[in-house]
Design a protein that fits this description.
By secondary structure, the protein is α/β, with parallel strands linked by helices. Helices cover about 45% and strands about 20% of the residues. The protein folds into 3 domains: about 1-120 and about 290-405, Isopropylmalate Dehydrogenase (3-Layer(aba) Sandwich), CATH 3.40.718.10; about 120-140 and about 185-285, Protein-Tyrosine Phosphatase, Chain A (Alpha-Beta Complex); about 145-180, no CATH class. The radius of gyration is 23 Å and the shape is globular. It binds NADP nicotinamide-adenine-dinucleotide phosphate (NAP) and magnesium ion. Magnesium ion binds next to α9.
């Protein structure tokens, strides 16, 4: 049977990457996408070699293309450290591509686990994925801190716009040495974080939860609570009611307790530090970083999809030696399906949306039939399993996909 390929109208911004994920990227395109879709992409090679050749301009260009077209799909990339500078003979230690892209898109990252039968979360009442949204500006990540000796005094000095000064005593260390820390955030940044979260909740038709410590931190955390509340009341209350979803604010401790008792399914907006910590808890509780999708959403509604894991360097070196690898491609496949589905929705191409859904279904079916990569074989509760190589796993998904189409 000769099948007609699905046509696209607007290109996807395709950001290629490094090491093992670059190998998977090509396999996914060859086996799972190109036979079925007349794939239209604007290709940017964010592989470290190309970034070095272009003085990292390629990363900036790819982010600007994302602003232009609205949807991007990104492969994992190396963030260079000293060892990488030597390995790739780099002109300099380039910044993290994700950081560069995030600064240009001004977005929020949402991370969601992929749930399949046989890989059960260790919290057994969690039935639906919990999505973490992490505020990526300020707080302890841009702090100013200092060690103090006995007899030192720490004060907070504020110079107002009119030049007047206010001094608040933080602590007098007359009785012994200690430590002090200050941090800040910006109302604009909190507001765009809130908007990204409300928009994403509407997009996903899921409830949004947010928690901060406003009872203890009556100015700082309370401002987060107030800004979220103002934005919700002004712009989102009616839209949420229409969509049948809820915005729920509570103390962070109460949120944590309720999350543990919940069946999941909500988007959990977190302050910067809470998001850093809780996203690691959520991803390990749900099974594996290789089963975690990640999307960067700008407040203006631009989407960049990727896998949450890195370039899986150790597997790549095995691959280079000609050894067989068993690297999990699920999160990278879901980056593609997320981007294709969004493109289909924006361009009104229902076939593309259906295709994305079928590819996800075929991926889940493959694992649920017991065919999986080694990382999952190590943690599954299924008993009859076959551990597949990177390529054989993708081929098994291809078979299921063909049956669905
Ligand atoms: P990593 O690539 O996520 O891999 C860490 C380990 O986790 C692997 O060695 C592997 O464990 C396991 N793992 C991760 N993804 C897997 C998959 N898809 N299938 C099977 N196992 C998987 O993190 P890393 O080794 O710390 O970092 C490698 C490079 O990735 C670094 O250069 C870093 O800069 C970059 N990175 C990029 C991104 C991004 O682009 N978003 C994010 C994080 C890191 P075993 O070796 O035990 O099998
Ligand atoms: Mg963390």
């Amino acid at each position: 049977m000769i099948m007609e390929k699905i046509q696209m109208t607007t290109p996807l911004v395709e950001m290629d990457g490094d090491e093992m994920t670059r190998v998977l990227w090509q396999m996914i395109k060859d086996e799972l996408l190109l036979p079925f879709i007349d794939l239209k992409t604007e290709y940017y090679d964010l592989g470290l070699k190309k970034r070095n050749e272009t003085d990292d301009q390629i990363t900036v260009d790819s982010a600007n293309a994302t602003l232009k077209y609205g949807v991007a799909v990104k492969c994992a990339t190396i963030t260079p450290n000293a060892a990488r500078v030597e390995e790739y003979d780099l002109k300099k230690m380039y910044k993290s591509p994700n950081g560069t892209i995030r600064a240009i898109l001004n977005g929020t990252v949402f991370r969601t686990p992929i749930i399949v039968k046989g890989i059960t979360p260790c919290v057994n009442n969690w039935r639906e994925p919990i999505t973490i949204a992490r505020h990526a500006y300020g707080d302890v990540y841009q702090n100013v801190e200092e060690k103090l000796g006995a007899g030192d005094k720490a004060e907070l000095v504020i110079t107002r716009a009119d030049g007047s000064k206010e001094t608040k005593l933080i602590h007098d260390f007359e009785k012994g040495s200690g430590i002090v820390q200050s941090m800040h955030n910006m109302n604009d940044s909190i507001e765009s974080f809130a908007k990204s979260c409300f928009n994403y909740a509407l997009d996903q038709k899921k409830d949004l939860w947010f928690g901060a410590k406003d009872t203890i931190s009556k100015q700082y955390d309370h401002t987060f609570k107030d800004i979220f509340n103002d934005v919700f009341e002004k712009e989102y209350k009616d839209k949420f009611a229409e969509a049948g979803i809820e915005y729920f604010y509570s103390l962070i401790d109460d949120i944590v307790a309720r999350i543990m008792k919940s069946r999941g399914g909500m988007i959990w907006a977190c302050k910067n530090y809470d998001g850093d910590v809780m996203s690691d808890m959520i991803s390990s509780a749900f099974g594996s970083l290789a089963m975690m999708t990640s999307v960067l959403v700008s407040p203006s509604g631009v989407y960049e999809y990727e896998a949450a894991h890195g370039t899986v360097q150790r597997h790549y070196y095995k691959h280079l030696k000609g050894e067989e690898t068993s690297t999990n491609s699920v999160a990278t496949i879901y980056a593609w399906t997320g981007a294709l589905r969004k493109r289909g929705e924006l361009d009104n191409i229902p076939e593309l949306v259906k295709f994305a859904n079928k590819l996800e279904l075929a991926t889940k079916q493959t694992i649920e039939e017991g065919k999986m990569t080694k990382d999952l074989a190590n943690i599954t509760s299924l008993t009859e399993i076959v551990t597949l190589s990177s390529h054989a796993f993708i081929t098994a998904i291809r078979k299921n996909l063909e049956n669905l189409i």
